[in-house]
Amino acid sequence: MNKLFKHFLLVVLLGASLAIGAVAPAQAPIRIALIESLSGPFANTGEAVFRNLLWATERVNARGGVKLPGGRRNLVIERYDSKGQNEEALAALRSAIDDGVTVIAQGNSSSIAAVLIDAINKHNEREPGKRVLFLNYSAVDPLLTNEKCSYWHFRFDAHADMRMVALMDVLKDDKKLKSIYLIGQDYSFGQAVLREARKQLVLQRPDVQIVGDELHPLGRVKDFIPYAIKIKTSGAQAVLTGNWGNDLTLLIKAAREVGYDGKFYTFYGNALGVPAALGDAGVDKVLAVADWFPNDTGASSEAFYQSFRKRFPKPQDDYVHMRMQLMIEALAQSIEKAGTTDSTAVAARLERASVTFSGRHGTMRASDHQFQQPLQVAIMEKQGAPGVKFDVEGSGYGFRVLKTIVAGRAEQPHSCKMVRPYTK
């Protein structure tokens, strides 16, 4: 009897051990393919995005990951280098799909975003069982959620026209401004910025004279001195530009070198070397528009920024965007509500996403998949000045928020004719 009991106990223990091993395997992570310039002239922008998305996924994973019926799953970012080129980006997309990734993230080029949308549309039509989603955090050509809108594409940044509305809300009140120079990168986004600038100036400040209006090659100009001389010679009291990355940093450096002392109304003048390049010459001169600035008021905003700086303490890594955090939160939320990672089911939830994080809130507009959120316009000041607790990239200069534009004010009409997939 004793031997029989021991044998029974051994069987029970062995069975329990096997059962534990069977019910608790490591769940495969949910993979997000980051397709960005990770080499070449805009590599710094790609790396900056990677840090933001990495931090966002780490936060989701720290709370247990994404909850699904089969168990919790972590999020992981996988890097694919587009080298800033359309063909390289398409090759990266093919590689990501071949690797089984179903969520694509990209943003630092509207032209690349456009070709990815086309390729993803075609793939999803050919392979309905292997559909993929496209999360866009920075490609802001309005076309992408208008004529080129796609059910599989979701934009979490305010597009160029929305950003222009915010900038113009401040520019229109600058009664001393009588002349302005428009300059941008010669591709779809840069062209869209200048087109909307001309339109808005006529509507809101018809008294302001446009004394210069030109485009330059994207990422190929090494010396902006000739452009800076033209700006200074024109007598422009301000420059308006959508330039980003090195094209913005080099432009502003050149303006400083030739002694130009006008204002800069920018989309991206608050990071990636611009404040350090200008120094005191940028104080009260450089304005930028964004979804959020570190010097936004409120304890939750400050805690958010401080936690990022703790994770990435190097001054050169100080590039944090709230929208990228909201994007990952929206993805996690949508997967959990769908109860599956199936792209079609997740998309149906994602187009109705409503997320709140660190005091900021945004909602996805289902009709065109354009995220709606408040925007802010801020001006460069010395750290320590009123409203400037935090500087940028250790430069000693930060941005004081001048105005917050509510989501309803920034919202723009669209021409999207959304085509949704047939589902049984």
Could you name the key traits of this structure?
single chain; 424 residues; alpha/beta; Rossmann fold; 2 domains; seven-stranded mixed β-sheet
Written overview of the protein:
- The protein is of the alpha/beta class and 424 residues long.
- It folds into 2 domains: 30-158 and 317-372, Rossmann fold; 161-290 and 374-410, Response regulator (Rossmann fold).
- It contains 13 helices and 17 strands.
- It has helices at residues 2-23, 43-62, 86-98, 110-126, 160-171, 188-204, 225-234, 246-257, 274-278, 299-311, 322-338, 343-350, 407-410; strands at residues 30-36, 66-68, 71-73, 75-81, 103-106, 133-136, 153-155, 179-185, 209-216, 238-241, 263-266, 286-290, 354-357, 360-365, 370-372, 375-382, 397-405.
- The strands form 4 sheets. A 7-stranded mixed beta sheet has the order 9-8-10-11-12-16-17, with helices on both faces. Strands 4-1-5-6-7 form a 5-stranded parallel beta sheet, sandwiched between helices.
- Helix 3 (86-98) packs parallel to helix 4, helix 7 packs across helix 8 (246-257) and helix 11 packs across helix 12 (343-350).
- The longest helix has 22 residues, at 2-23.
- The N and C termini lie far apart (60 Å).
- The model is unreliable at 4-25 (pLDDT under 50).
